[in-house]
Amino acid sequence: MRTSISCIVVPDAYIKLFRTIRMRQISIVSSPSELIFAKKYSFFLSFQTSLLGSICNIYLLLKFSARDGRPNGFQKICLVKTVPNIIVCLSFLFWVVPLTAFSYSYNEVNYWLNSLVGGVAGTWAYLLTPILQVSMSCNRFYVLYFPFGIKLVKKVPMTNVIITIASLSVSIVAATTLPKGCGYVYDPEFLQWIPEEGKCAETVSSGINYAIIIFTISSNSFNIATASRLLMRKIVGLTKQDSSKRRKRWMIMFLQSVMQDCLHLVDSINATYLWKLSEELWFQCIFLTLSFITIYTLDGFVMLVFNQDIQPKWCRSGSKGERTSAMMVTSKISVTTMT
Length: 339
What we know:
The chain crosses the membrane at residues 41-62, 83-104, 124-146, 158-178, 208-231, 252-275, 281-306. This protein is mainly α.
């Protein structure tokens, strides 16, 4: 759950008072023409970004699913990672965009449906993605530091176990947002996804944001350890040229991982701190709503760019023997590649 507006009081009267004060603040800072511009701006960019993100991530899901042979752990995680990306993009395309286009007020939106969409997209998907990213970084760390595996877990389908545990865990967290006062909803008047005004929502939101930061730090720690190993370890059994090419592919994979990790940290910073720098509605829309959808769209495009074997033929570059895809450097020995 992303943090933007929080309040400790719960009664409906106080919530209505809070919303009235908030709308007056926006009205004072932004003129009617600026409010109209902000809504058109939000609608156009949300529609464009969510459409591109939906197409990209659905394409990735189909391509990852149709890969020949038995998928390894890295491929499984990439496949599952497209699911939360698709959920977020579709929630914008079929929920946020229509509500914004038809200028619904918050009170006109069905509360339970709004809360359900927010729980699935803003909590379940938002929390699952960085957990999967940690799993991807751990996968590559394990391949490099334990090339022959660890005997105790060598025969355990760790990828399936991790994905199952992660999915169940985030489902439990998402379920806690369903009671009234704990939810995460889209407010078409503010053009923002916001936690409800209650102590429950505030607590859950803060906990999730801290978790995102912890997951990002953990994942990048694995990435740094992996990069250090690559720089110091000499690859034997290969010519100097082949060794250089393999090391280059691993470094490209490292950059991919860092980029994906930092995307969610940037979004968390935007939704927690940067949006507060201005009361302008268009400014807050950029660092809250548009940041949210842009991160999940970019996450899909990052996977597409670094997996050349699944790219459309018209956008592939380079010779077939020089693929920079991360998939080509994952080891079947890895504990997280066992099925």
